[in-house]
Design goal:
Number of domains of chain A: 2
Radius of gyration of chain A: 28 Å
Helix content of chain A: 40-55%
CATH topology of the largest domain in chain A: Spore Coat Polysaccharide Biosynthesis Protein SpsA, Chain A
Strand content of chain A: 5-15%
Number of strands of chain A: 14
Shape of chain A: elongated
Oligomer: homodimer
CATH architecture of the largest domain in chain A: Alpha-Beta Complex
CATH class of the largest domain in chain A: Alpha Beta
C-alpha cells in the first residue's frame, strides 16, 4: 500500500517586532535556552501530537468547535498538550492535522507564538481511516530520530512525561507508558488494555480478556513504529493499536511503568468535566499556607482564579495587580482619617487574597516559572514595608510621642527579617524551614490580616506593633532553632571489608 | 615473633555536667548525629592515628614539647590531625601512643572533649623499633574492619581524605593515597617514593631510583596490612614502609591518586613554618568580598585573626563580640552629639572588621559550621537595622522635618532587601547571585564604611540616605535581572536512536 500523501507546513516563530515586556518576563527564558543550544545538539526528542481526529463524542456534547480548540479552564486542549510537554522539557513539536486542519493549525500556531516553541505541521490525507494513518503521516518529519508520540486530547503530568523521557527506546523498539492501576482509570470501558510480561507488551487491545495494565497513549518510539503501522496497513488495519500489535508481535514494544501518575483521555463530556476537576485540584497544590490563607484567602482566591482563568491576564499581571493594590491600601492607611483606614484595611486584605491568584493561575494555565515566583516574593516584601511605613506615618501625625517611629520601624523590620531568616535557613541547612506553628505565625497572610482588622477597628498602629512583636519572637525562635540543626552529611561509601563494629 | 604487648585505655567522652551553651552551639550537631546513628551501623571507618614517634627533628628546632602537643596557629598538631578527619566525616579514632604516652594521651583526651568524638588509645610497647611496630599495635582495636591509617604530624585537606574514603579497599587490599606531582612536594629529599603500575604499587621506598609518585602517608587498609607488618617483623624490619613492601610483593597495594591536594609532613622546623603559611593561606579563602572588605577590612582582620587564634575565643564568641560592638556603635550614633557620632562611627567600622574574624578563625581552627555561619549572617541583619534606626533617631531629634523618619526608614529597609534578594535569587535560580559590581555595591562592608565615614564627618543621616539609595538601586537591578535568568534544566537522557537532528 502506498504511503499517504503528506503536505508540509513548516512553521517557525519570528522574533516579536515590538517588545512585550511584561508578557515576556516568563517566556524569555525558554526562548533563550533554545537560542543558546549548540547547533545540532538534541537535548530532548521531538514530540509528535496527533490532532487529526474528529472528536465526535466530545463535540456532540459540548459545541461545534474542533476538539483541540475547546478550552479547559482558559487553555485550549491544543495549548495544554503543548504546555505539558514543554513543562517536561520537550522543545520541538510536530502536529499531525486532519479534521478541520486549517482551524487546528491556526490554533497551534497561536500556541507556538505564546509559548515560544517550534511546531511543524503535516496533514494526514486519509486520517478518516484511523489514527494509525495519522501517526504514519509524521514519518517524514522525524527522520531516524526517536520521538515522543501523544494524542492532543490526553492530559498528562510533566512528571509522567519526564519518566518516559528518562527511559528512551533502543534502536528497534517502541516504549509505551502503561498504568497498572486500571481500576482507577477514568472511563475504564474505553481503555485499551495491555498485557505486560517481563517488561514487554505481550498483547494489546480493547478486546483483551486478560490484562494487567492500561495503554496511556504516550509512546517513546524509534522508527520501528512506522514499519509496524505499514505492515498493519497491508492487512487493511489502520489504527495505532494495530501498528503497535505488529511491533509487539516481534517483541519490539517495551512497557514503561507510570502507575500512580494522573492521565486522562478527554474524549467525552464526562471526561471533560473530570479534566476541569483535576486542573482545579492541581491549582490547590501550592506552597504551604498559614492560618488565614488556609481558611479565608485560599477559598476565595481559588474561586477568583477560576474566574480569572477565562481572561487573558497572566500570572505576572496578577502579581503586579496585587502589588499595586497593596500600595493603594497603604495610601489609605497613611492618612489620619479613620474611614480611610477602613478602606485601606479592606484593600490590603483583598490584595492579600489576590496575591494567591498568581500562583493558582500559573498552575491552571501551566505557566509556572521561577521568574514569576521571584517577582511575586520580592514585590511582597516591598508591599509589606510600605504598609508598615504607612501605618507608622499616620500614627506619627496623630501622636507626638517619640516612641511611635522607632516602634513602627522595629515592627516593620520584623516582616523582612521573617522572610529573610527562612531563606537563609534553607541555604545554610539545605532544606526549607518546616511549616510549623512558628512559621505560620510569621507568614504574610496573618500579618496583613491583623493589620487590616486593626485598621478597620481604628487601631492600625496597635495591630502593627502586636503582629510585629509576634513576628520578632518567631524570628528569634527560628534563629535559636538553628543551633540544633544539622546538615545531612554527604554519603560516604562503606568499606568493602566486613566485620563487627568496633569501639 | 611475638606480637608487641598492648595496653588498652578506652576513653569515651561524658556529657558535660553543666551546659556550655555558647561553646556547644557548633558542636552539638556532630554529637547529635552520632547519637542518632543506628546501633552497629558503620558510616565511616575508624581512623588510626600514629602518635608514638619521638619527633626528634622538630623537637630540637622548636621546644621540648612532644610533637602532638606543639601548636600550629592555636591548635595542637594532635587536634589538627583529629579535626581534619572529622571535617571529612570520620567519627571514631584510635590513637597509638609511644613516646611521652601520658602527655600525648592527655592532649588527645582534651581534643575528644572539645570536638565531641570517640578516641580509643593503645600503647605500642616497642615503638622505638619503628613505626611498623606502632601500626601493628592498633590491630586489636580495629578488628576485621577496614580502617584509615595516618600519621599525627601530617596536615591533610578534608577533600583529600574524602577522596580516599570514597574508594575503600577490597577484602585483602591496602590502598595508599599517592601524589604524582612529586616535584612540588615539600621536603622532597625525605619523601618516600612510589612506583605505580596500572593503579597498583609496584615498589616503595626512599631509596627508589625510578618512581612516578610520592607516599602521602594516608592509607585505607584492610587487615592485610597487619599480615604484611608481621611478615616484615620476622625479617627484622620494623618500619611501616617495610610492611607495605611485603603487601605490595603480593600485589595487594592499590594507589589512590590524590595529586593536586595539599598535604604536608610537619617533620622539621621548615615544614612547621610551611604549615603555618598554608593555614594562613586557607584562612584567606572565604566568601567573595566587596571593595572595602578587600582593601581595608580583610588585611586588618587577617592579622587580628592570627593574633586571636592564640586565644581560646571561638568563632561564635567573635560573632557575638562583633554584634555587640555594632550595637554599642549604634548607641553612639543615636545621640545628638557630633563627638559621639565620631566614636560610634569608628566603633561600627571596627565591628565590621572584627566581623571578618569569625570565619577566619573558623578556617584556621577547623571549626567551620553552618550553625556558625547562620548565627553570623542573621545577627548582621539585626546590627544593620539597629545602626540605621540609631542614625535616623538622632537626626529626628535634631531636625523637625517630617521626611526624616520615612527617609531613614526607607534607607534602612534597603539593607534588609539587599540581603533578602540575593538569598531569594539563590533559592529561585539554584545558583548564587554573581559577585559583580551591583552585588559589591550592596554589600555590608561598603554600607557600614559609608555610614562610619559620614558619622565621623558629622553627617550620618546623609551617609545613610546615600548608601540606602544606592542599595535600593542595586536591589531593583537584581530584581529586574531575574527576568533574564534561567534555571539549568535537569539532564534528560538522550534517545539511544541516532540520526540527524530534525526541524
Amino acid at each position: 500500500m502506498a504511503r499517504p500523501l503528506v503536505r508540509f507546513n513548516h512553521y517557525r516563530i519570528a522574533r516579536p517586532s515590538s517588545p512585550h515586556r511584561l508578557k515576556n518576563w516568563r517566556r524569555r527564558s525558554s526562548m533563550r535556552s533554545s537560542d543558546n543550544a549548540l547547533p545540532g545538539a538534541i537535548a530532548t526528542p521531538v514530540a509528535v501530537i496527533l490532532a487529526a481526529g474528529e472528536g465526535r463524542r466530545l463535540r456532540s456534547g459540548r459545541s461545534s468547535l474542533p476538539k483541540p480548540l475547546v478550552r479547559l479552564r482558559g487553555l485550549s486542549i491544543a495549548e495544554r498538550s503543548v504546555a505539558q510537554l514543554l513543562a517536561a522539557g520537550v522543545e520541538r513539536f510536530a502536529v499531525v492535522l486532519g479534521c478541520d486542519a486549517t482551524l487546528v493549525q491556526h490554533e497551534f500556531e497561536r500556541v507556538a507564538r505564546r509559548r515560544r516553541c517550534h511546531i511543524s505541521f503535516v496533514e494526514a490525507a486519509n486520517w478518516r481511516k484511523g489514527n494509525g494513518c495519522s501517526a504514519l503521516a509524521a514519518a517524514p518529519l522525524v527522520g531516524n530520530s526517536a520521538f515522543l508520540l501523544t494524542m492532543v486530547d490526553h492530559l498528562l503530568t510533566p512528571e509522567m512525561i519526564r519518566k518516559v523521557l528518562a527511559d528512551p527506546p533502543a534502536q528497534d523498539e517502541v516504549a509505551l507508558a502503561v498504568d497498572h492501576d486500571t481500576e482507577n482509570v477514568f472511563d475504564f470501558p474505553d481503555l485499551t488494555k495491555v498485557e505486560v510480561t517481563e517488561g514487554r507488551i505481550a498483547a494489546i487491545g480493547k478486546e483483551l480478556t486478560t490484562w494487567n495494565a492500561g495503554d496511556t497513549g504516550l509512546f517513546y518510539c524509534s522508527t520501528l513504529l512506522f514499519d509496524g503501522l505499514a505492515k498493519a496497513h497491508t492487512h487493511g488495519k489502520f489504527s495505532l493499536t494495530d501498528g503497535i500489535k505488529e511491533c509487539a508481535a516481534q517483541g519490539g514494544v517495551r512497557a514503561i511503568d507510570v502507575t500512580g501518575e494522573a492521565w486522562l483521555d478527554v474524549d467525552t463530556p464526562e471526561a471533560f468535566r473530570e479534566g476541569i476537576r483535576r486542573i482545579d485540584a492541581a491549582m490547590a497544590k501550592g506552597g504551604e499556607d498559614g492560618f488565614v490563607s488556609q481558611y479565608l484567602n485560599r477559598p476565595l482566591s481559588r474561586r477568583l482564579s477560576m474566574a480569572l482563568s477565562r481572561t487573558r491576564l497572566t500570572p505576572n499581571h496578577i502579581t503586579l495587580l496585587s502589588f499595586f493594590m497593596g500600595l493603594l491600601g497603604a495610601v489609605g492607611l497613611a492618612t489620619t482619617e479613620p474611614w480611610s483606614w477602613i478602606v485601606g484595611g479592606i484593600v490590603i486584605q483583598i490584595a492579600s487574597i489576590v496575591d494567591g491568584c498568581d500562583g493558582e493561575i500559573a498552575r491552571i494555565k501551566l505557566l509556572q516559572s521561577p521568574q514569576g515566583a521571584w517577582l511575586d516574593t520580592v514585590l511582597d516584601r516591598y508591599s509589606d514595608v510600605t504598609i508598615g511605613l504607612a501605618v507608622t506615618f499616620a500614627a506619627s501625625q496623630l501622636h507626638d510621642a517619640v516612641w511611635v517611629w522607632p516602634a513602627g520601624f522595629a515592627a516593620t523590620v520584623s516582616f523582612l527579617m521573617a522572610s529573610y531568616v527562612t531563606k537563609e535557613f534553607q541555604i545554610r541547612f539545605h532544606r526549607p524551614y518546616p511549616n510549623n506553628l512558628i512559621n505560620k505565625l510569621k507568614r504574610r497572610d496573618l500579618r496583613i490580616f491583623v493589620i487590616a482588622v486593626g485598621a478597620v477597628m481604628g487601631q492600625p498602629l496597635v495591630a502593627l506593633l502586636v503582629i510585629g512583636s509576634l513576628t520578632h519572637l518567631a524570628v528569634f525562635q527560628i534563629l535559636v532553632s538553628g543551633r540544633h540543626c544539622t546538615v545531612v552529611p554527604s554519603q560516604v561509601n562503606r568499606p568493602r571489608c566486613t566485620g563487627p563494629p568496633i569501639l
